[in-house]
Specification:
Blueprint (H helix, E strand, L loop, with lengths): L23 E3 L2 E3 L2 H8 L33 E3 L2 E3 L2 H14 L13
Antiparallel strand pairs: 1-2, 3-4
The protein binds zinc ion (3 copies).
One zinc ion binds next to loops.
Amino acid sequence: MLRGIQRDVCAHCECPIVDPTVQVVHGALTYCCANCSEASEATGSGSDPKALRHGEDALRCAHCGVPIVHEQTMEARGDDAFCCSNCAAMADSMAEHGAGAMGGPGGSARA
Ligand SMILES: [Zn+2]
Ligand SMILES: [Zn+2]
Ligand SMILES: [Zn+2]
């Protein structure tokens, strides 16, 4: 069932939340995933002992650029990594809009 009144978007990267299984809700704010939640909160209370600090080795979402600290929600598309399936879906839909109508299913190879 769709709650079709208003599509939620991530409060951090403004990605439409199409996959609610990875979203994180903090009060009035909804994030597409735990990565965006942590990235947004990192500026405030940086007291999470679980926060992984890989520095410049950290993967970043190819869509919104958030550091990927939760590999459970990470999605990969070829060589690109996304923080979650929402950002991956955004990238997919953008690719569809940009690539005309010749794209077949499963065409993951890009030149
Ligand atoms: Zn996000
Ligand atoms: Zn995300
Ligand atoms: Zn992202």
